[in-house]
Amino acid sequence: MNKLYIIKIGGNVLDDEKALASFLTDFASIQAPKILIHGGGKIATKIGDQLGIKSNYVDGRRITDAATRDVVTMVYGGLINKQITARLQALHCNAMGMTGADGNLLKATKRPVGKIDYGFVGDITAENVNSTLLYFLLKQNVVPVFAPLTHAAGEILNTNADTIASVLAVALSKHFDIRLIFCFEKAGVLKDVNDADSVIRNLNTELYQKLLKEGSFHDGILPKLENAFNAIRSGVKEVLIGEHSHLVANTGYETKGTLITA
Amino acid sequence: MNKLYIIKIGGNVLDDEKALASFLTDFASIQAPKILIHGGGKIATKIGDQLGIKSNYVDGRRITDAATRDVVTMVYGGLINKQITARLQALHCNAMGMTGADGNLLKATKRPVGKIDYGFVGDITAENVNSTLLYFLLKQNVVPVFAPLTHAAGEILNTNADTIASVLAVALSKHFDIRLIFCFEKAGVLKDVNDADSVIRNLNTELYQKLLKEGSFHDGILPKLENAFNAIRSGVKEVLIGEHSHLVANTGYETKGTLITA
Questions:
Q1: What is the pLDDT of residues A9-64, one digit of tens each?
Q2: Cross-chain Cβ contact A51/B47 below 8 Å
Q3: For residue B99, which of A7, B44, B108, B147 sits 20 to 30 Å off, Cα-Cα?
Q4: Distance CA A29, CA A31 (A)
Q5: All residues at 6 or more sequence positions from A226 whose CB lies less than 8 Å from its CB, including other chains
Q6: In the predicted model, what is the mean pLDDT of chain B?
Q7: Measured between alpha carbons, how far is A82 from B97 in angstroms, rounded to an integer?
Q8: B123 backbone dihedrals φ, ψ, rounded to 5°
């Protein structure tokens, strides 16, 4: 099977012009089918503030009310997504910006109201990815660039960018050998959270279970690792957790981050 | 050749929720390949005002400075485009929202600075349409929905929606028998501007030249007619100018608007 890179970048890269320019150049240079998923960044909060829209939190969890949803639709789906797309085009990368509504690529379920009403938030599964259309776009050498938005019942919904990346990887694992790359601010999963050089270079299920029992992981990395092993169990060949500035190395054989396999 | 409908709606429909809902239902019901191009609407001006961005005019012409360009990128490319896409999806129409940057569909030239510097405005020609990708999308039963934005040299540019519709029609006329439909507030081209019932039902080059010499057209309609006959001369089979609420009739044989042919 052909290799496919699915790469997620967070808001911290988007907020740092120098880091972003460097990341986009690296991303454009990857000579293989690839998909980019971007998060939000501080610009959405800034524009929301200027428009007088308050962030709502219940029990420390952010709520997406209708006004906030419209701001993220504008900022994630319009401003950030189209700026990235135009910049990648100038780097000879045939980027195509999209949300989950476009081409019904990511049909979501609006999160049911339980103890908390999260508002306009969409939950997705690999079964609800239009992988036929995505596969066809990749075959045309198009590079999909996803904003963290999905849809249900005629509405745009806010969806976590990490989740979108994982779900896309699982849905496309029938067609490609996938390396799913999560870019974040650290070089990888650290054995010692206070030692930036203690990156665990290779992690498989066996070692993960062992380190988990030993309590080696700090709380912040656990959801990322759970997410990664879920993807591996669902057919994704490799998950890499690493720093955004190490992208080129992390798409090759001599990776700098944490390479996770079955 | 197969028929393709290329349909442009203006901001007045977008600003009127009842008219928009009805238009989208009609558009979704068309059982043929189709493309939608939407204009802006007052919401961009409103959001620009709220963000403290002033509209700039020189000699009565609107200038797109960088801040205004970012607002239209957000509002046209994000909010309006994604809302329309999500609503069409709920109407079982496989809409895919896009700008000219996406998939390099509309590569523009930034308008050269002459007597006026229009700012971030893109001029386009049929030669710079990625018609291969558009053709493939249409073959996949995808319905492209264009925001009036193009790109050049890594930047998003503002481009007139009527121009985008015409240029797409010309570029795709090799592959399809095209009916290019401009929806506006009147039923069609009027013989007597004060009589709403005086729609010229059929207009060809001969009759157009005759009426032009007689001075029958008022100034407002002349640019639309010139645009229409330019498209006809460049290979577009039919151009229809009509009211947005007459869309279903205007996609059939018994048209209510002005049907323009060679």
A1: 998 999 999 999 999 999 999 999 999 999 988 899 999 999 999 888 887 778 99
A2: yes
A3: A7
A4: 6
A5: none
A6: 95
A7: 12
A8: -100, 140
Q: What global pTM score does this model have?
A: 0.97
Residues A136-188 have pLDDT tens digits of 999 999 999 999 999 999 999 999 999 999 999 999 999 999 999 999 999 99
CB atoms within 10 A of CB B174: 11
Judged by phi (left if over 0) then psi (alpha if -120 to 50, else beta), residue A154 lies in: left
CA–CA gap between residue A85 and residue A81 (Å, rounded): 6
Among A89, A101, A136, the residue with its CB nearest the CB of B85 is A101
**How confident is residue B19, by pLDDT bands cut at 50, 70 and 90?**
very high
Q: Using the structure block, give the residue that is written with the tokens 């009805």.
A: B22
Of A140, A132, A157, A43, which is closest to residue A96 (Cα–Cα)?
A: A140
**CA separation for the pair B230, B225 (Å, rounded):** 8
* Tally of structural domains, chain B: 1
Name the H helices within A80-204: 81-90, 131-139, 161-172
ipTM of the complex: 0.96
Measured CA to CA, the distance from residue A237 to residue A195 in angstroms comes to: 28
Instruction: Return the pLDDT at A79.
Output: 97
Cα(B242)–Cα(B183) distance, integer angstroms: 5
Mutation site, A35, A74, A80, A99, interface B, largest B CB count within 10 A: A74
Task: Find the domain containing B114 and state its range.
Answer: 2-260
Diameter over CA atoms, chain A: 50
Count, residues in chain A: 262
User: How far out from the chain centre does Cα B262 lie?
Assistant: 21
- CA–chain centroid gap for B75, Å, is 17
Residue B151 has its nearest CB partner, among A75, A86, A103, at A86
pLDDT per position as a tens digit, B152-207: 999 999 999 999 999 999 999 999 999 999 999 999 999 988 899 999 999 999 99
**A50 alpha carbon, distance to own chain's centre:** 27
Judged by a CB distance cut-off of 8 A, whether residue B76 touches chain A is yes
Contact assessment for residue B183 and residue B10, using Cβ atoms and an 8 Å cutoff: yes
For residue A88, which phi and psi values (nearest 5 degrees)?
-65, -35
Q: Which two tokens stand for residue B20?
A: 């928009």
Scanning every residue of chain B, which has its alpha carbon at the shortest distance from the alpha carbon of A70?
B79
CATH number at residue A234: 3.40.1160.10
pLDDT over 90 (residue B58): no
Q: Which residue matches tokens 């979108």? A: A164
Name the residue type at position B95.
Answer: A
Pairing of strands B34-38, A258-260: unpaired
CB atoms within 10 A of CB B76: 29
